Amino acid sequence: DGMNVLFIVVDDLRPVLGCYGDEIVKSPNIDQLASQSMVFSNAYAQQAVCAPSRVSFLTGRRPDTTRLYDFYSYWRVHAGNYSTMPQYFKENGYVTLSVGKVFHPGVSSNYSDDYPYSWSVPPFHPSTEKYENDKTCRGKDGKLYANLVCPVDVTEMPSGTLPDMQSTEEAIRLLNVMKTKKQKFFLAVGYHKPHIPLRYPQEFLKLYPLENITLAPDPWVPEKLPSVAYNPWMDIRQRDDVKALNVSFPYGPLPDDFQRQIRQSYYAAVSYLDTQVGLLLNALDNVGLSNSTIVVFTADHGWSLGEHGEWAKYSNFDVATRVPLMFYVPGVTTSSVSEGERIFPYLDPFGHGLGLVPQGHSKKVVELVSLFPTLAELAGLQVPSVCPESSFHIALCTEGPSIVHYFNVSEEKVEEEDNGSDDPYRCFNEEPVAFSQYPRPADTPQWNSDKPKLKDIRIMGYSMRTIDCRYTVWVGFNPNNFSADLEDVHAGELYMVETDPNQDYNIYNNTLHG
């Protein structure tokens, strides 16, 4: 009789997780989920900013189809009346529930998180969310600031809590309610951290002594990076602690010691997030639903931590577009679970790491736009058909294929034995491909380069990632008719993954277009 779905989406989380091979982070609960899941190590968002990415994966359509590249339009009015993933589950008899940040709030989800289309009851938002950007960070002088780096004493916070703690409590309450009902549910839980400000309970700093924190491997702006590709991280410049550093626009750089503090606090915020995920999954065990609930864990996009001299998202690099993606499917990714068996005991990040490895793991390049058909297939619903070339008039179709067929493939030897993986021409006939894109207002970094409004977009960076390469072209774009002029190439980037994993050496000009 079908599976429930617990869909966990995290804001701005790049895969700094033990299960993705990160050696510093403490993420035992997410690692434990991975140890029972199919984990995709090459998953990419379609645009590295919150609202466009979320509308894209929740509708299964790419940004060129949702026509949302900023925060200021509602797709049903502005592009087409597209069904969403939760709406599809709701229409198939599920109770659909939203907790925290699932849709991006505001006009891009009709000021209602797309209720009542997507959700059975009005979405829950934590009451303390409104203090996120207030002066709640105590400085060295004892005064309160609106800082980027913001470890806090939770007892001093408004209501003595933090938004993600409230979301976990509400999600657990809903699990307890649904346990007694006979209806299947689709519960989406959206966590805020590690989105800025990096505000988390201060004890998590203890996990990351500053002397263990390094700079990014490539903390400089690459010599051949086209200026249009660079994002000037305006949002972090506006925080009190960064403002006080008075770094020059647009290239900075931030002082080394402050870079290490940002990295330290990002890791600490991830460990705080991990405890919340751990409490939530432990509750799934407690209510006896671990054997009948699919769990999906992902993020809306990544976040640069100083790589290429960049911070935040807003780019086409892997650090901004790559996301964690894992699926726990009882009886599929794990042997069938007996009633009452504990799958997700809570693990204390201050305890000893277990060093868990993913249950199954695929290096196949996949996209978040595939989430909708994949979840439909896993839940036994009819998989929506693939959209035709133009689909503005079609309410239900998806622009990404289901990736369920990758689940049962034992990891085949990656065919790189032919030593051809550094041949740039191979990039264009490789399958599969992940597409991402990012708009810019101009060829050089401006105050609005990170988040241009639709009317100000002049250039669109279309990017493709294969197993071997990251290839991006920045082309002229007309916001009045949403058209890109592929002949009008402003700049290009080509990085070979094997020899240049950090994407520092752009070979676009000396290969294909010399």
Automatic annotation (TrEMBL):
Give EC number(s), comma-separated.
3.1.6.13
Among Pfam families, the record links this protein to: Sulfatase
**Superkingdom field:** Eukaryota
Protein known as: Iduronate 2-sulfatase
Its function?
Answer: Lysosomal enzyme involved in the degradation pathway of dermatan sulfate and heparan sulfate.
**Which UniProt keywords are present, listed alphabetically?**
Calcium, Disulfide bond, Glycoprotein, Hydrolase, Lysosome, Metal-binding, Signal, Zymogen
Q: How does it assemble?
A: Monomer. The 58-kDa mature form is composed of two chains resulting from proteolitic processing, the 42-kDa chain and the 14-kDa chain that remain stably associated and form the 58-kDa intermediate form which is enzymatically active.
What family is this? Belongs to the sulfatase family.
Q: Where in the cell is it found?
A: Lysosome
Q: Does the keyword Acetylation apply?
A: no
Under which main EC class is this enzyme filed? hydrolase
The answer on whether this UniProt entry bears the keyword DNA damage reads: no
- For this entry, list what GO says about its biological process: carbohydrate derivative catabolic process
Query: Cofactor(s) for this protein?
Result: Ca(2+)
Q: Which GO terms describe its molecular function?
A: iduronate-2-sulfatase activity; metal ion binding
